Amino acid sequence: MENYVNISNIDNPMTDKTTIFYKLTLFIMGFCSVFYTNTKLSLYIRLFFLIIILFYLFYDIFIISKKVAINGFYWYIIFFLFVFLSLIYTSNDSSYMVVIERMIPGVFIGMAVFQSKNRGLNISSFFAGVVIGMSVSAFIVILSNIGSLGQGRIGSDFYGSDVEFGALCCYAIFSSFILIFIYKKQIFLWIILSMFLYFGVLISGTRKSTIQPILVLFLIIFFKNLRSPKILLVILFSAIAIIGAYYLFVNNEILYNFVGKRIESMFNSFINNNEDGSIIERKLMVELAMDNMGNRFILGHGIYSFAYDFAYVFGREVYSHNNYTEILYCYGIVGFIIFYWKYLYAFLHLKNILKKTSNYVLASIFVVLFIGDSYSITFLQPLAILYISLFFENLLKQNDFLRF
């Protein structure tokens, strides 16, 4: 039987008005979290987001609960502080703020959500805000590009990068999975919105974001039936579904133009070593990072140093597109241990994964994000960091804090 937090155990029992305030504020934070990188609304959203979240934290910490309750999220705060301190020795003396600006929302989001859940509050409204906010954003992007759908990758006009747009659609789908499989309310709505968001992923043309929701859904079903005699059938039908989806992507002209061509090239790179320009460039990034750490492998070269040091190679400042090498090159072995030590601890406790529904749902997201570290910079994605932190806390403490 799952153990839920009893609202009567909260230090400061809330009135109905206070409950509405918490839920509404968490919803607004979730809604804003997918807009903060929007190039057209960025400044306004960031200011509004910071005002809302700082007021929320002040109100809860100093007026309602009168204590800081962000246990379980300190690991990322410590990593952020280490990244910030690397300003002291970084080789990049001009454009490092791009990293700080992306990590600060992750710190604030994590603090607000953990402050809420550690006091036994229902945090489902945050996930609902993420899904609805990204659905609104995707609708605007599609509407503004309606005449060019199927002719190229979509999303860069609103997010500066189609990859960013696709990734945020993907992370919003993860929130919909949490709402569907854990909270189990308004399931039909979240299914419809997740399907719409997956269309947003497709038009972004992002390979990673196209594959990740499918893998998460497969793992949720797999973990749920792991001890069931039906597990072999689940694996068989899932394999057939994945093969069928691949066949559809590469044989349907519209889907092929959206993302099928890029998925096909990715599989061809594994099978025939026939790589497209994007994969070749990413491999070069990893090689450069690993080959040039030199005698600074302990603390690294400092914040955003890979992008700065190798801008002459790629013609622009760009991340290494690999979380492991980005951390190793910029923040060294020390930064790598600070960020990944909790991953190891979590893997050692995976035996607890089937004890609660929330465990295997969050574990599925965690595993896919961990694999995705080979192709993206996870530590700069606030929602990804939140999902990972919730998984760590839920698995290790065996406390089903996601609802009461």
Automatic annotation (TrEMBL):
O-antigen ligase-related domain ranges (all copies) = 194-340
Which UniProt keywords are present, listed alphabetically?
Ligase, Membrane, Transmembrane, Transmembrane helix
Q: Where in the cell is it found?
A: Membrane
State the annotated membrane topology for this chain. Answer: Multi-pass membrane protein
MF-aspect GO terms: ligase activity
Question: What's a Pfam family in this record?
Answer: Wzy_C
* Cellular component terms (Gene Ontology): membrane
Record field: transmembrane: 20-37, 43-61, 73-90, 96-114, 126-145, 165-182, 187-204, 210-226, 231-249, 297-315, 327-348, 360-388
What InterPro entries is this protein classified in?
O-antigen_ligase-rel_domated (IPR007016), WaaL-like (IPR051533)
The main place the protein resides is membrane
Which PANTHER family does the record associate with it? LIPOPOLYSACCHARIDE BIOSYNTHESIS PROTEIN PA4999-RELATED, TEICHURONIC ACID BIOSYNTHESIS PROTEIN TUAE
Q: What is this protein called?
A: O-antigen ligase
Protein's organism: Anaeroplasma bactoclasticum
